[in-house]
Write a structure and sequence with these properties.
The protein is an alpha/beta fold and 284 residues long. The protein has two domains: 222 residues, Alpha-Beta Complex (2-enoyl-CoA Hydratase, Chain A, domain 1), CATH 3.90.226; 48 residues, Lyase 2-enoyl-coa Hydratase, Chain  A, domain 2, CATH 1.10.12. It has eleven helices and eleven strands. The strands form three sheets. Strands 1-2-4-6-8-11 form a six-stranded mixed β-sheet, with helices on both faces. A three-stranded mixed β-sheet has the order 7-9-10. A two-stranded parallel sheet has the order 3-5. Helix 4 packs across helix 5. The two termini are 22 Å apart.
Length: 284
């Protein structure tokens, strides 16, 4: 990697760790609160949101990355949006200007989070500590969510005079249905990892001393067993298909199937799967 390429991967609020052998890239968020009165960890100021956008661009064409693990530093996923840095207009600003400025910031966060759903690389959210507000909205934008047994999560914006704004009202319904989403959002309830798993908000709960190892093992299993082309297209069919009529979703699936079976990895999987051998996929 050249000096210029190394600089591309330098961040102030993200740590990038690449396991090239296993094609796993871990993104660790590390962002201090913008206000001295805020006790949360990894709050999402504009700088962190923009760095998440930048790393998405880099990973999109990165040949060494076939799965992404997204986590927070200090055993704390994210406390949500950060409003302590002056990015919101002061209270005396005319309401129409305040609304427009806030709306632009909300849309930017929505679009950055949404790209984790759209990128062809599977993204695992590794949730420790708290995932609340924008932190949970980010986790819900990932494909798979695992939590440590002592983690807590929820969308509590309604208890602070707000509503979820980075996709929470839309994503939670898709994950757990209207009834449960209504209850959690309207009450602003923060729930345990165990309850989140029971209602389908997350995929699994791991013990404290096994958490990192278990999450990595899940990521490694996907890489070793499945073709990158196949999981990339399958992910996009699932995410895009949920937003279109059923017949259109079937048509998308047919096109996706046609693409996969014309890949080199299809032949590798076909010839090694029956023999019980470990496939060596080319991502082609």
């Amino acid at each position: 990697m050249s000096n210029n390429e190394e600089k591309d991967w330098e961040f102030n609020h993200l740590e990038i760790e690449k396991d090239v052998e296993n094609h796993i890239t871990t993104i660790t968020m590390d962002h201090p609160p913008l206000s001295d009165l805020d006790t949360r960890t990894n709050t999402m100021g504009p700088a962190l949101v923009e760095e998440l956008a930048k790393v998405q661009d880099l990973l999109y064409y990165d040949p060494d990355t076939r799965i992404i693990i997204l986590k927070g530093s200090k055993h704390y996923f994210s406390g949500g949006g950060d409003f302590g840095g002056g990015e919101l207009p002061p209270p005396g600003t005319p309401i129409d200007i305040r609304a427009w400025g806030i709306k632009k910031g909300v849309v930017r966060g929505q679009r950055v989070f949404k790209r984790f759903r759209e990128i062809h690389i599977p993204v695992i959210a590794a949730i420790e500590g708290m995932a609340t507000g924008g932190g949970l909205e980010l986790a819900m934008s990932c494909d798979i969510r695992y939590a440590r047994e002592d983690a807590m999560m929820g969308l509590f914006e309604t208890t602070y005079g707000m509503i979820p704004g980075w996709g929470g009202t839309q994503l939670m319904v898709r994950h757990i249905g209207v009834g449960r989403a209504m209850e959690l959002i309207l009450k602003g309830e923060v729930i345990s990892a165990q309850k989140a798993c029971e209602i389908g908000l997350i995929n699994g709960v791991f013990k404290i001393d096994e958490f990192d190892e278990k999450v990595y093992a899940e990521a490694k299993e996907i890489v070793q067993k499945c073709t990158p082309v196949g999981i990339g297209i399958a992910k996009q069919m699932i995410n895009f298909g949920s937003d279109v009529p059923f017949d259109i979703g079937l048509e998308l699936e047919a096109y996706g199937y046609g693409t996969v079976v014309n890949s080199k990895d299809f032949l590798i999987g076909l010839t090694t799967g029956g023999d019980g051998k470990k496939p060596n996929y080319l991502n082609e």
